[in-house]
Amino acid sequence: MTIIRPKISILNDEYRTKILEEAKSILKTQGIFVENRDAAELFQREGLPEKNSRFFIPPDLIDRCLKSVPDEVKLYDREGQNHLTLSGDQVNYDPGSAAILILDEQTGEIRNAQSADFIRFSKIVEHLPYIDAQSTALIYQDVPKNAQDWHRLYLALTYCYKPVITGTFRVESFSIMRELLLTCRNSEKALAEKPLAIFDACPSPPLKWSDLTTQSVIDAAKSMIPSEFVSMPLAGASAPVTLLGSITQHCAESLAGVVIAQLSRKGAPIIWGGSPAILDMKTGTTPMGAIETMMINLGDVEMGKFLNLPTHAYMSLSDSKVPDAQAGFEAGMGALLAGIAGINMISGPGMLDFESTQSIEKLLIDNEICGMVKRFLKGITDYGSPFASEILKDYDDKQELLSHPSTLKLFREELLFTGPIVDRATRDSWRMLGSNSARSRARVEALKLEKKAPLIPIEEDLLRELNRIEKSNL
After folding, report:
1. Distance CA 233, CA 91 (A)
2. CA of 386: how far to CAs of 121, 397, 410, in Å?
């Protein structure tokens, strides 16, 4: 049995209660600005006070809506088989979404992404054992602008079987994206029972839900497609500079999303997520690898857990422009802290430069980091006592324990076998293999993975129908 699962906490129940009560007070007295007509009608039907498109939400309505939110989201693959569970302290990783640039590992150039880059990215994600879901990770430029949302989902479903974290930048995109998802499930009921995509919805700080973001939540709720709230308070700019202040603002913005979703359809699945940051006062940037940003994320997630909701955060990414030492320590710290916190969906592997760039080299390195985190979270196992004394009695016979029955029986359970990115060879072996860095090894591994056959090939009938939808909408 596992003795204890490692955990971390930065808030206690006293402060969680204070934050929740203040967030409710903010929504009651300062309100939330909502541009969307459908949401306005939902609020007006509830008799909410309004002033200049700002609605004032009473605490009792928030409490009522919280009661109807599922405490678990199960996300299934393209074939409707394997699933991820978002609840409790279960941890899953996906690459961050919607980067506009890619670091070309062959040329070293940071450039605009093309659809071929995203196809290659998706093929590689399929083969990474510790990246649990894929994402519409790149916004590529070689399709019409009005097709970019749904076309990314089309390619994701075509080239990788894993469930997808996605989202819309145009209200009109949702219906096409829903059609693509229904093609994989054949009915509304099946899609609701076995969702294969999560739609990110990003409120605009402070205290605003835009027309686009709100419509995404409403449309997703009607089809029982999970929405992932990605509140983005910027501490010191569009949110209080204090970490507690930003966590409180995040809570208020996300509670407003809960109300929108549940008024749209009672029981609609949501994930309490976010991508907060501090404002770097020296450079004017929004560092995702800053320790304070990670602390805000942890506080946000603790509030979601306090409300018994599935959770999400953007962590395991870096502000470095290349996969260097900074990228390694920022991604490693973020992935480990997020894992120990039990965040259900962690977005960020592969991302550089304030979420603007995807790097396949970093993605492969991060996959190894995620594997190590998952091993850490398994904790220390008690196989029965005594723990060492009986084993040590046998040492004198052979002067080693490598061949001991306990070693042969348990080494695969106790030890994580890292992939080709991690170097644990002797110095001589390392030199014989070319004295390569982790980044160089990742570059070589990427070339191998992109040529591998799919783990779960797409069925011909499904591919034909997805292609039909693409052609009819381009």
Report:
1. 24
2. 48, 20, 16
What pTM does this model have?
A: 0.97
Q: Chain-wide mean pLDDT for the chain? A: 97
Whether pLDDT at 1 is above 90: no
Report helix angle 460-473 to 148-159, nearest 10. Answer: 170
Backbone angles phi, psi at 5, to 5 degrees: -85, 125
Q: Is residue 440 part of a domain?
A: no
* Residue 133 domain-assigned (yes or no): yes
Per-residue confidence (pLDDT) for residue 45, from 0 to 100: 97
Question: How is residue 423 written in tokens?
Answer: 């170097």
Q: Is residue 359 part of a domain?
A: yes
Residue 129 preceded by cis peptide, ω within 30: no
114 to 107, 142, 148, 352, 407: CA distances (angstroms): 15, 6, 11, 18, 49
Q: What are phi and psi of 228, to 5 degrees?
A: -115, 110
pLDDT at residue 4, as a whole number: 79
Q: Residue 149: which domain range?
A: 67-378
C-beta of residue 347 within 8 angstroms of C-beta of residue 337: no
Residue 391 lies in a domain: no
The kind and range of the H/E element at 26 are: helix 13-29
